[in-house]
Write a structure and sequence with these properties.
Layout: E1 2-9, E2 11-14, H1 18-27, E3 35-39, H2 77-83, H3 87-93, H4 100-113, E4 117-119, E5 121-129, E6 134-142, E7 148-156, E8 158-161, E9 165-167, H5 171-178, E10 184-186, H6 190-198, E11 203-206, H7 210-222, E12 230-233, H8 254-261, H9 265-274, H10 284-296, E13 306-309, E14 312-319, E15 325-331, E16 336-342, E17 344-347, E18 351-353, H11 387-390, E19 395-398, H12 403-406, H13 416-428, H14 448-455
Parallel strand pairs: 1-7, 2-3, 2-8, 3-4, 8-19, 10-17, 11-12, 11-17, 12-13
Antiparallel strand pairs: 5-6, 6-7, 9-18, 14-15, 15-16
Bound molecules: flavin-adenine dinucleotide.
Amino acid sequence: MTTTDDQPFDLLGIGIGPFNLSLAALADGIPDLRTAFYDQRLAFHWHPGLLIEGTTLQVPFLADLVTLADPASPWSFLNYLRTRDRLFPFYFAERFHIQRAEYDAYCRWVAEALPTTHFGHQVDTVRWNPGRALFEVDHTQLDAHGEAEALGRTYTRNLAVGIGTAPYVPEPLRLLAEAPTVPVIHSADYLKQRERLLGTPHITIVGSGQSGAEVFLDLLRARPAGREGLTWIARTPAFAPMEYSKLGLEQFTPDYAHFFHGLAEPVRDQLVPQQWQLHKGIDHDTINAIHDELYRRTLDGGWPDATLTPGVTVRTAGRMGAHVIELHLEHEQQATRTRLTTNAVVLATGYRERPLDQLLAPLDPYLRRDAAGRPRVGPDHRLLFDPAVQDTGASIYVQNADRHSHGVGAPDLGLAAWRSAVILNALTGRDPYPLPARTAFTTFGLQAATVSAYARPAGIHGS
Ligand SMILES: Cc1cc2nc3c(=O)[nH]c(=O)nc-3n(C[C@H](O)[C@H](O)[C@H](O)COP(=O)(O)OP(=O)(O)OC[C@H]3O[C@@H](n4cnc5c(N)ncnc54)[C@H](O)[C@@H]3O)c2cc1C
């Protein structure tokens, strides 16, 4: 059965992760804006496999879905606490970084209360309808078991694509991870597999980001002293801390995103990998907790049965019988290769942006691309199209799919409310959410006029 909603929306969101949920929450405050948000999942859940007890957000609670654009919104974290009669306990807890499970519960409260969110709606494709100057969105409605129930078509003038990221498994481990009998899992599935992992004599964790550290710590705490049976390896040269200095964090401001967007494409492409410590390191508290736990285990003499080695690459891997895996390892700096036998592997190997290409394939002839073939994205997070689409005013905005154009802040929850406000301001052509002109003490880049005024005597010539 196919259902068609012929009356076009002003805005249709694809995906309901934190970013489009923020957009839905702020759009809710704009009268007469007809919006809907679709997600293929049956309910809101935020990274359920990694809601390890005690883990916290890496950003303060003020980076909720709305506050940094509209502190008076009814969808703020503080208002969530008020509805739960928990404001006083939160006030005395003095916690700036809330537990991840609490953020998940807060977002679910918003997702369930907003009338515009629709779960069990998987968007299949987006087409351009030139006759109506609208986007046509085909979707599949899923039943309570996630099975296709009905097909639908929706029309919209604007889209916000917030389909997020998917777990990434490196090539040498892909076949192993796909074999169901061997416990080789991505960290995204950690909690689902935790008991099974704990039942194995030796576990290897691959990856030195926050997830790798959290999984290592959780397993370490759960194993008996002296019989930990853990190896933690990572490609990075060290188990490095995440940059958390106050001026360093200004690279997660709208000012920096604006500066980054103005840089030449090759410069932007060089910068992103250089900035890995801004988002790929481990937070100080987790590093300290790991060290404390290891140290505690030496108090009776002896060392814990845990090996932590950075600078190591997994070249290949193979299964040796039903319960043993062999990893072929290389330490490049040392020019050494070895083999490690283990009974389970947790791949904390990160996530990659879900490609837009499949969803937007019919729009390909209209889409402008950069030199590397990626969609070109305007400063207001709008995909750039040929005039045939662009000049109609219809737009597709992207959330968390624009690291190549907007820099390391693209997946940062601290920019969610701001980006939603930018999108709603651009889409409505009014300023429902006025935003400040300046957001950082650092001035990123030089003003051309300033360069010429000060620099000429010293021999620097601004353009
Ligand atoms: C464990 C973990 C912890 C993190 N902690 C922090 C943190 O503390 N601070 C921070 O700044 N960042 C953090 N991040 C990074 C980032 O904020 C999160 O990844 C965040 O979830 C990104 O939100 P999103 O809305 O882009 O996408 P997602 O949360 O990935 O949601 C995307 C949604 O789109 C849906 N979808 C995909 N395709 C379709 C389709 N075709 N049709 C319908 N629906 C579709 C998916 O079902 C999903 O629900 C963390 C990331 C991880 C993995």
